[in-house]
Design a protein that fits this description.
homodimer, 102 residues, alpha+beta, Alpha-Beta Plaits, four-stranded antiparallel beta sheet, 3 helices, 4 strands, 31% helix, globular
Amino acid sequence: MLVNVVTVYVKPEHIADFLAATVDNHTGTRTEPGNHRFDVLQSAEDPGRFLLYEAFESQDAVEAHRKTAHYLVWRSKVDAWMAKPRELVSHRIVAPADPAAW
Amino acid sequence: MLVNVVTVYVKPEHIADFLAATVDNHTGTRTEPGNHRFDVLQSAEDPGRFLLYEAFESQDAVEAHRKTAHYLVWRSKVDAWMAKPRELVSHRIVAPADPAAW
């Protein structure tokens, strides 16, 4: 199990577009057997700053995610809307240690 | 509902101490009625970089958390172990929209 945390900075004029595309990606990703969470958060102070919280069963599940139609459609749309490159930090889980909590 | 995401940079010689103290804080926080998640993650690339993913019912629940013994004990221990000030970003939730998912 691992969690990828992605910070995305979106141009102000594309925030609504980004929200719609990312909710679609959320919905698709949650159907993947290797996905446990795909939370989409918006900074309370900066509406152009988003955080994607992506819990996957394994690195193989991440690779499978990156081949899905919903991910590829999302990527093809959002790249042009980003104010700067997105940042990805991969994490191991310390707590909760119980897989059932994921 | 809101999610506070805290990034903590820990001095190498205090990583084990930080892990123990933060797991205790996790356990205590998950007993709070206004807390929905308190995930503790460690960067896969930098073992001194941690992310706390704290989902609360409301800002009032956050304020109540900051008065608990487990939080105050954690704060009193970890401040000296940080390599630099921790970063907190508060978020509103875009997805999942269903409160039951939290």
